[in-house]
Amino acid sequence: MSLSLWLSLAAICAVGAMSPGPSLALILRHTLGGGRQNGVTAALTHALGVGLYALLTVLGLGALIARHPELFMWVTWLGAGYLAWLGIKALRAGKAGVLSPGHAATTQGQAAKEGLLLALVNPKLILFFVALLSQFVSPEMGLAAKLIIVMTAVVIDGGWYMIVALGLSHSSILPWLQRYSHWINRVTGVLLLLLALRVVAGPLIQG
């Protein structure tokens, strides 16, 4: 893979990771609810999910989805349901009040599970890999180039959300976030529910 092609790949992966969405909301919630360790854990498992999709893409996921559009429809509905469930959880947590540093509202196990699951059922990620990342894959591409694609997606996604978690957990930022955590949870919950509705409405409008 040439340097110019890799730079294009890295730029697309960076834009995909940094765009606001449910992944950012999830990292925020676990950093607020459990501190730096939970935020970083969610970031790492989210990157593992991204890596799985990147691997499937280089192995032919795009071609499979193109041949079986009903598969994408089922994954889309599953993703919408999961986003709605996360949104309801965030809204219910919003009434819990201010978080204190000694009380973790989320566990590291929850952070790990939800980080991975959100990556796997997020329709935005599926569209990203099928529509964009698959453009970098050719039939004659060697194993090394395919590994570069996978690792680029993993490192950029995991690196970005780790930076977010570390930044949010900084001593000068976390107390402010904790003070207004009930409002942040409510806003996050509403956004997740709106994203779920948008995911459901998209295929219906197109159909």
TrEMBL record:
Keyword Membrane on this protein? yes
Give me the segments passing through the membrane: 41-64, 71-88, 116-136, 143-163, 183-205
Q: Where located?
A: Cell membrane
UniProt keyword terms in alphabetical order: Cell membrane, Membrane, Transmembrane, Transmembrane helix
NAD found in the keyword field: no
Q: Where does this protein chiefly localize?
A: membrane
Could you tell me the membrane topology recorded for this protein?
Multi-pass membrane protein
The source's domain of life comes to: Bacteria
Protein name in the entry: LysE family translocator
